[in-house]
Amino acid sequence: MKVSEFLASNQPKIVTCRRADTLQAAASLLYSNRIGAMPVVDSSGRLIGVLSERDIVSALSQRPHELMKLRVRDVMSAPPVTCQAEQEMHDAMRIMLNHKFRHLPVVDTDGRLRGMLSIRDCLAMQLKDKELEANVLRDSFIAARFS
Q1: Domain containing 99: what range?
Q2: I need a labelling partner for 3 at 20 to 30 A (CA). Which of 43, 106, 127, 129 fits?
């Protein structure tokens, strides 16, 4: 399955932030939307980075006295590692595994943000595939017994 196909049927609204946003405002967005990472976009909506819970925890542990002054640009991961919307889901999962990411921005061929994949999304897709496979095998077994 292509990433674009998966996103078309499973993607909620994309929550983004800007590099000049305060870290506190960005953390509030993560919390209120119950997400672990979000794309950082410029004024034209182009992806320039990713802000994750891990980035915030790192800032908290390394710069605790500056925390209230920090901006997204100070702690975001940039440049972002991405996958293309037309790549296969297993390719996107491989990127996440190789980089030890739990979230991966998806871009189109022009570099525009199309969505975010999470490890939870990938796991849910694999579980559906395995359930379908088990049902097909069960049905094949039953059909073979009665033919």
Answers
A1: 3-145
A2: 43
| CB atoms closer than 10 angstroms to residue 77 | 16
Instruction: Read off the pTM.
Output: 0.82
Report d(CA 69, CA 72) in Å as an integer.
Answer: 10
pLDDT digits (tens, 9 = 90+) for 21-60: 999 999 999 999 999 999 999 998 899 999 999 999 999 9
CA distance 111 to 139: 44
Domain count, the chain: 1
Residues in the chain, total: 147
For the domain that residue 108 is a member of, what is the CATH number? 3.10.580.10
Q: Which residues contact 4 (CB under 8 A, 6 or more apart)?
A: 85, 86, 106, 114
